[in-house]
Amino acid sequence: MMKIYDELLTRGLIAQVTDEEEIRELINEGKATFYIGFDPTADSLHVGHFVALCLMKRLQMAGNKPVVLLGGGTGYIGDPSGRTDLRTMMTPETIQHNCNCFKKQIEKFIEFDNDQAILVNNIDWLLDLKYIELLREVGAHFSVNNMLRAECYKQRLEKGLSFLELNYMIMQSFDFYHLFKHYGCNMQFGGDDQWSNMLGGRELIRRKLGKNSYAMTNTLLMNSEGNKMGKTAKGALWLDPSRTSPFEFYQYWRNVDDADVLKCIRMLTFLPLEQINEMDQWEGSQLNEAKEILAFELTKLVHSEEEAQNAKNTSRALFTAGTDISNMPSTEIREDQLVDGVIGIIDLMVECKLTVSKTEARRVIQQGGVLLNDVKIDSIDLVVTSEELKNGTKIRKGKKIYHKAFMNN
Questions:
Q1: Conformational region of residue 314, where left means phi above 0, alpha means psi within -120 to 50, and beta covers everything else
Q2: 3-state class (DSSP) for residue 303
Q3: Which sites bind L-tyrosine (predicted)?
Q4: Which alpha helices (DSSP H) does 89-158 contain, by range?
Q5: Which residues are annotated as a binding site for L-tyrosine?
Q6: What is the pTM of this model?
Q7: pLDDT band at 228 (very low <50, low <70, confident <90, very high)
Q8: 320-330 residue pLDDT tens
Q9: Could you read off the pLDDT of 127-169 as tens digits, one per residue?
Q10: Which residues fall in the annotated binding site?
Q11: Which domains does the chain carry?
Q12: Residues contributing to the annotated binding site for ATP
């Protein structure tokens, strides 16, 4: 039977490690206590987090112990990675609210009973640090020259990097030092934009605690391909159903490119590798079946088997006569949003968040990209009546985005 480390490699989940043999032995024998951090930049996790959570789940199932780190403290600074400008400063109340939302979602993936995993928040130690003491005890071990060569900072230098953000690497490095010292955490995982920060954590342990402690730590870089495949035109694909409905989530994966479907199945689902390997020869109409399997498995993981089945049924019904729109993403239109009992199609599309502006709605309609109840709209002046809304009005934007607008009777 394949060991967990080889399975992770085969699934394409590992990009880089600090000591492969040591990491292989630790996680194969269930001796890794590893952490992954989640900064609360929104009130929902997204697909990038989902990839990390699935990796944690796989390793926990193999007997290893996850440390889930909520970035309530680092959230005060904001990770500059992947940013072209300074993040919006969040209030302490917003940060705490987002952490609470993350916690509820993470508990769907990771088992915390009987000390199987640890949930910590770095606000518990970072906010208590004294600034001068931090500069002397931690800052002295970091070279600004080396920091600025890190990819997460380098891409920001032209447009401006704030001193606030410059401290992010120090804070994240201190997290690993703290978790190693207080929880026996011997391994850290992260995406490719975190590599420099994670190496900084190992180096801090070496300088503060000596070579023996340093030798007990390791770093694993996750393959970020799954995260990249989870990006939509509108931004992140969210795990919270109020942001991305189960149907929208299902439909996104149902429509991935043919070239990506098996890669996604291998990386993101928990289907046995033997079953996935049999799909390698699939082509033509079989790839549509593979996409349904991918969409169903991921929707089941994130939402539930019932929601996955509902989304599957709705998706299939969209391409048949007598379409069932009961499980389609929907927006309720209020009476006070109508004028003389009607609402213009442009306003309706904006209210349903199918476009971000009236200008975009007008453009999409003029390009022939909008259907109302399966009929192409050829006029930007079209109106929808209250009676039509009470019966449920199906709007299709492009080939893949479906939405229902309705009014209560």
A1: alpha
A2: coil
A3: 35, 168, 172
A4: 92-106, 123-126, 131-137, 144-149, 151-154
A5: 35, 168, 172
A6: 0.80
A7: low
A8: 544 556 667 88
A9: 888 888 888 888 889 888 888 888 777 767 777 777 888 888 8
A10: 35, 168, 172, 231
A11: 4-227 (3.40.50.620), 245-317 (1.10.240.10), 330-406 (3.10.290.10)
A12: 231
